[in-house]
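Take one protein record:
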Amino acid sequence: MSEIREVVIIGSGPAGYTAALYTARAQLRPLLFGSSIFVGGSLTTTTEVENFPGFPEGVDGPVLMENMRAQAEKFGAEMIDDDIVEVDLTGDIKLLTDSAGTVHRARTVIIATGSGYRKLGLPKEDELSGRGVSWCATCDGFFFRDRDIVVVGGGDTAMEEATFLTRFARSATVVHRRSTLRASKVMQDRAFADDKISFAFDSEIAEIKDTNGMLGGVVLRDVLTGVTRDLDVTGLFIAIGHDPRTELFTGQVELDGEGYIKVDSPSTRTNLPGVFAAGDVVDHTYRQAITAAGTGAAAALDAERYLASRNTTHIEQEPAVVPA
């Protein structure tokens, strides 16, 4: 059997790396499992990040993640670029099985598996990510100043993103498959009142055009008639929702109706003792790198305090000095 670790972290985005940094500095020797193919989380698919504090000139997403990883490793965090494929988190000692079948044991587990943007499933969608295709208006809106862009979606997120993007863009076309929006009335009213926003109802994106490695426009298709038309835009923002990566924990960790992990806010405690969750896997609202990092720090502190309360930390006590 493997040794019992004080802390095992699942996930390698800002939340996971921050949790690793904090627990490593607390001398808890954390073991972090990233991913076999998606190390560093969604920021590794982003080009320039301008809203992470401490980088006045901006920083490339992959560079930011590499730096966060290196900082955690500097203090003793151990990183494994592999997937955890099975867990048993119900006992005092948590059991985690990696893709090779090795079982790892831990007294505490921090879940930081994040969430994934729902995609359209079209050719060129992934290839043009960061080159005109985006899933985050607050991350990338600034780069589309005085450009024509399109936003896909009909809910509150899509309306919020379209309204935000008109601060920069020349125009925003909202594309929605239905004849009416699903967004709340207040969000609809705000979007309808914005003279930069127009709507393409009963429509979907049929094709994403690639022009020399950059988004060169999209083709819209009327879902009722099948008629297509070109839309000359240089920005495509997809706002059709997120899916938390919680399949591994279903049936053990309590989830809400949308599949996000429920925590005892403002702490990061889940329904299972010794199991904590941080980052986008618990966050419906903000989904920013800085907020994920903040909850990663909170999860580390919660885990440290949990271990201290149970007197199970690996730190050995100095023997008492007996007077001669």
User: Anything to note?
Assistant: The helical segments are 14-25, 61-74, 137-140, 156-165, 185-192, 289-309. Residues 148 and 168 are 10 Å apart (CA to CA).
